[in-house]
Amino acid sequence: MYHLERVPRLTDRVARQLAALHVSILVPVYNEDPGYLKLGLESFLRQTRPPNSVHIVDDGSTSGDYAEVKAWWEREAERAGISTTWQRVPNGGKRHAQAHGVRVSPDADIYITCDSDSCFAPRAVEQVLLPFMRPRVQSVAGIVIATNNRVNWLVRVTDLWFVVCQLVDRSGQSAVGAVMVNSGPLAAYRADVIRDNLDSYLNETFMGRPVMFSDDSLLTLYAQQRGLTVQQPQAICFTAMPEKWSHFTRMYLRWMRGSTIRSVWRMRYLSPTRPAYWLHAMRWLQMVLTQMVVLWLLVVEPLAYGKLPPESMLVIPFLIGYAQGLRYLSIIRSDERIRSRALTWLTMPLAIVLAWTVLRFLRWYGIFTCARTGWGTRQNGAEVSLGGA
């Protein structure tokens, strides 16, 4: 299905329509590395289609007040003609920080959500707006790649795995207007999708506990209830990936717990007439069946019948992985030579083994512990710094 994804074209007429939109970027900040924060703000200034306004909310950071970055940004934003606000509020979580930005931007037609370590490619804003030329499109996901992809092998493999998931799984969903999760580092929404659901967004609970994570998938669910959710593969954003295994596992468990909660909400609130409803149901069916087949081939048959798994099982997954991984090479980076990206592509067997073993265990552990709804990272400051990239 991912071959059916179509990239919209920018015509003069469409350009005029999109230029008339008021685009606001929401930037929640909590214990972020100042270098990454400044890098992201600089990327807003270099956009081919600048945002109309940028709203930064420091969510009670304990690692610093970003005074130097704030002074620099306010000066440069004024020079660039970008309206901006910078608030420091008591810690309430990412969603509440975003809400502070929403409340001071009543004129916005489109909200672009990002993370405090997001760095937009020069055409990111221009490209992420393109699908909105279709009135039914309610949200647009960008493509996220690692800023620090050459720091170590963990980041390389994570970058490969993450990009391929976006350009295969999510591209397939986008082909039918049913992207299920927009990535936090770069996503765009029609303003009413967020405004009309703000109270629900800020007060989500699961099993009586407030949900602090999975904000991006909840906003995507709101968009799915109204229309189409798509991906724009030419809207590129860089972000800092975990450089330590402990950081990676906490991030992945947060994703899996959020995915489980969101699955419950999709079955409850999405109409069966929506493609996303059935794609979601098929995904769970596929996951359960795959788990049963793997257990049968690797555990039951060897122990009960003395039969080893077929040799094809050790070959076919890697061939499929390499074929799908070719889409990773379609992302051209000005800061990296193709031979370096090819080297990352060659690590596909490592990514597959990781997905079949450790990540499979973490996925099920996350499902069974989904009631743990805390964020889990950055309590003691930034875990990735620009100096290490």
Write the layout of secondary structure elements.
Elements: H1 12-19, E1 23-29, H2 34-45, E2 53-58, H3 67-80, E3 83-88, H4 94-103, E4 110-113, E5 119-120, H5 124-129, E6 137-146, H6 153-175, E7 187-190, H7 191-195, H8 198-202, E8 205-206, E9 209-210, H9 215-226, E10 228-239, H10 245-269, H11 275-305, H12 316-325, H13 338-345, H14 348-356, H15 358-368
Helix pairs in contact: 2-3, 9-10, 10-15, 14-15
Record field, number of beta strands:
10
Element-by-element helix/strand order: HEHEHEHEEHEHEHHEEHEHHHHHH
Q: How does the major sheet shape up?
A: 8 strands, mixed
* Average residue-wise pLDDT: 92
Strand order of the largest sheet: 3-2-1-4-7-6-10-5
| Gap from first CA to last CA | 35 Å
* Fraction of residues in helix: 40-55%
Tally of separate helices: 15
Question: What is the approximate shape?
Answer: globular
- Coarse structural class: alpha/beta
List the uncertain runs: none
Strand content: 5-15%
Radius of gyration: 21 Å
Describe this structure in words.
It is a single chain. The protein has 15 helices and ten strands. It has 389 residues and is α/β, with parallel strands linked by helices. The chain has a domain of 257 residues. The strands form two sheets. The chain has an eight-stranded mixed beta sheet with strand order 3-2-1-4-7-6-10-5, sandwiched between helices. The two termini are 35 Å apart.
Key terms:
single chain, 389 residues, alpha/beta, 8-stranded mixed sheet, two-stranded antiparallel sheet, 10 strands, 49% helix, 14% strand, glycosyltransferase, Hyaluronan synthase
